[in-house]
Amino acid sequence: MVKNLMIIFSIAVLCLSLAFAQTTSDKKSEAIALVEKAVAFVNEHGREKGFAEMNKPGGQFDKGEIYVFVLDLKGFMAAQPKNPKAVGEYLLDKPDTKGKLFRKEIIEKAKTEGSGWVDYFYRNPKTGKEEDKTTYLKRFVDLVICCGVYR
């Protein structure tokens, strides 16, 4: 009887783990797609219109806790729908709450690899809590277009 309960418990844990992994995978795919959409939008409509759209809360690049933000290669925020005060601000030397200079890592990865993922700790706009976040980035000329997911 105990052995059967342990087997059932193990299967339940495995199923929950797979469900969580799938959810995270789906969110990461959504982040990549949103970045690609943002790159295409800026390429088609230009920076001014692109940044205006990306700065718009609830716009097509703001899906709640998944949203696009843009840095230039010098470390200035060009677009951010959740924190409009950050737009135009130099953020390269501003760490997350655990001391990681994640924006510096984002820009370095953009310069050396062109795209990729960076992990850090950030306030989730949906929950209001500091959470682990991973952000997909893609370099576009002298910009880094990003979208992250909370884990």
Reconstruct the topology from this structure.
Blueprint: H1 2-45, H2 47-54, E1 62-63, E2 66-72, E3 77-79, H3 102-113, E4 115-123, E5 130-140, E6 143-150
Antiparallel strand pairs: 1-2, 2-3, 2-6, 4-5, 5-6
Description:
It contains three helices and six strands. Residues 4-22 have low confidence and may be disordered. A hairpin with a 2-residue loop joins strand 5 (130-140) and strand 6. It is of the alpha+beta class. Strands 1, 2, 3, 4, 5 and 6 form a six-stranded antiparallel beta sheet that branches. The longest helix is centred in the N-terminal third of the chain and has 44 residues, at 2-45. Helix 1 runs antiparallel to helix 2. Helix content is 42%, strand content 26%.
- Pairing-aware structural class of the strands and helices? alpha+beta
User: What oligomeric arrangement do these chains adopt?
Assistant: single chain
- N to C succession of SSEs: HHEEEHEEE
Q: Indicate the percent of residues in helices.
A: 40-55%
State the end-to-end distance: 36 Å
How can the largest sheet be summarized?
6 strands, antiparallel
Number of distinct beta strands? 6
The 3D shape can be described as: globular
Average predicted confidence as pLDDT: 87
Q: Enumerate the spans where pLDDT stays under 50 for 5 or more consecutive residues.
A: 4-22
Radius of gyration: 18 Å
Q: Approximately what portion of the residues adopt beta-strand conformation?
A: 25-35%
Total DSSP helices: 3
